[in-house]
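Quick question, first post here. What does this chain look like in 3D?
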Amino acid sequence: MFDPQALINRIHQYLGRELQSVVPGKDQMLSITIPVQEIHLRTLPEIKGEWFFWDRPTADECILGMGEALRITASGEDRLDQLNQALQQIHDNWEWIDLELTGFRPLSYFCCAFDPEDQMQGCWEDLPNSGLFLPQLTIQQRDNYCVASFSADLSKNLDTDSIHGRWMELFTDLIESLNRPHQPPGCKTSLARTATSSNRTQWQQLVEEAQAGIASKTMEKVVPARHLKIQAQRKLDPRQLMTTLNYLYPSSMLLATHLSGRVFVSATPERLASCNKNQISCDAVAGTIRRSAVEQRDTDLGDTLLTDPKTRHEHQLVVEDIKHSLGPLCITLNHPDLPSLKPLRNLQHLWTEIRGELKPEVNLLQAAAAIHPTAAVNGSPSTEAKAWLQQNEPFNRGWYAGAAGWIDCKGNGELAVLLRCALLDNDQADLFAGAGITAGSDADSEYAETELKFDVMLEALENS
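> Answer (accepted):
Ran it through. Tokens below.
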């Protein structure tokens, strides 16, 4: 156990020394990175204000951002281009102090809605369609090594004492939270379904309309979704929810964001894109079947998924969609000939990893703009499927099936597709789940698939 006050004092002195040479009012960002080996994040701490959290349990990779040094928002078809241009301007005027050569660069948090024209109404009100957020304090943990990056926008004409004071306020809040005992809930909370966008009969009609479009050769695949509203017996605790998801879904990417008084959470198995220098990786995830507690039955279910013609066709549409979108941006692009299984707690997916080498002038946000939305969450062809969803889906998706993740000051980063998600508001939650419809789809089976996907978050919420 470390001495909290000794750590706080060390960081206070370090920041104070480095801020002595800073000139407020300059048109630039400032970040100072310091090792904090005393800290080890195991899950989301109980903290105040606005924050974002990224956790990959099996990779021992955890990121926590607190406060906002900068927020840039955008909407419309060119929203990612707007954000990319803004990010490049920031990068050109970003002073990064890393005297102990940690190599951990400061990070911005990125998020975007599924639809660039989504007005973010209803449960999404006051949340941005898309945005970049530079936290004032970022904790990064990887391979049992932890650093803290403190950032400020010097153009806001804040004096160095104010910058120093705000940084220490956030850091002290974090340290106090990490040293508070974490009491698990005494019992599960019951959840009541209070509303849904599509009951079984309405879903049947939606699938029939989708298949009519497919039969007319307008589309090959479309991915409608359902919206479920939940009422809990007590206030839902995002910290406990992330702890539960960490235990239940350690191989998934776990994301949580607190903005405008609400918390958005996702436990997603699907990466939109990750980029390290000019190397890019994407996940094609499509095709779903349940798991079984009986080992042989579980194996048989996986084999069924791997060999089912309808599922393989649906999956191949996603692979081809990503290749078509990403190909012009890459020097090389490759993937395995056959998909693999991606097993999760209650279901398993077909998965193909697509890897490439980006052209020198292409970065992560530009690649994301080309790929999103993939056929896994939208359909194929992309334009026709998206138009069908806009006309027929009975709710606005908001961030569901959008993307979120982190981008460092050199343009490297990782973005996840926002699936298996919930938007929390006190003792209520909005959940979302979709299913890919092709000519051979059965409405009852696809309805059951959405229920399996809802179960991911419902089980975790019961323990929150």
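The chain has a mean pLDDT of 93.
The first strand starts at residue 29 and ends at 35.
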